[in-house]
């Protein structure tokens, strides 16, 4: 297993978001790493069945997740939706051999031990499968922002044949957690490069639509 004092050097490369995958890691080693990292936001750590994934998020990654989180929280505010932000909290279940840190996450309606919604900004591909990870953590819905597109997956209680490849999640065109959210509008505003302009446009469009409702 990589020692913490070697981790920083190994993650420094031309790509500011280098990813390291380490196999054969015990749950005890995983928890020891989390304890050593403490509240540091320098790395994102995920664990599944003895595989450890460590990512040093790039500025582009952090910008994307913050912009998406801003618009989601604007939606909660404008629609008076009760929510509890859980951010990049480390969620883990030893009995499921799974742990991870979403880019953003939320409990909706009531506060819970695990979030209802996990949001992931995908810059580099590969690594631990997030749908399998979140299925074990019993997260109801997972959103992926990748290549200027938003993909939405909702967890089904059973895993019918057609959802085996997505680990029991069904890919949807709209959110079941937030059924009134216009995903096309959200995507359109996320593609606006200026964060302030994006937030203002999203808020204005929401307010106009709520007045007509």
TrEMBL record:
InterPro entries in the record: Nuclease_put_TT1808, Restrct_endonuc-II-like, Uma2
Pfam families: Uma2
Putative restriction endonuclease domain boundaries: 28-183
UniProt-recorded name of the protein: Putative restriction endonuclease domain-containing protein
